Amino acid sequence: IDAGSAMEKGKLVGDVDFKEVSKKASYITPVPGGVGPMTVACLLENLVKLNKR
């Protein structure tokens, strides 16, 4: 899971070399659009749970 991101030449990139790793890994999440939406969903779920306490 490539959860890190950085700006490179004005473009958002991940910490993993996608082209190189995809030759060996069965699955890989792209940047942008990889785990970000899931992170937001989990944060919102936790916020709702906290609000119910």
Summary?
By secondary structure, this protein is an alpha+beta fold. The protein is built from 2 helices and 2 strands.
Instruction: Trace the largest sheet across and list its strands.
Output: 1-2
General shape:
elongated
Instruction: Give the tally of β-strands.
Output: 2
Tally of helical runs: 2
Mean pLDDT: 83
Summarize the biggest pleated sheet: 2 strands, antiparallel
Helical/strand content category: alpha+beta
Low-confidence region ranges: none
**In percent, how much strand structure appears in the residues?**
15-25%
- Beginning-to-end CA distance, first to last residue: 32 Å
The topology string of helices and strands comes to: EEHH
Assembly type of the chains comes to single chain
Organism: marine sediment metagenome
EC number: 3.5.4.9
Protein name: methenyltetrahydrofolate cyclohydrolase
GO molecular function, one term: methenyltetrahydrofolate cyclohydrolase activity
List keywords for this structure.
single chain; 53 residues; alpha+beta; two-stranded antiparallel sheet; 2 helices; 2 strands; 40% helix; 15% strand
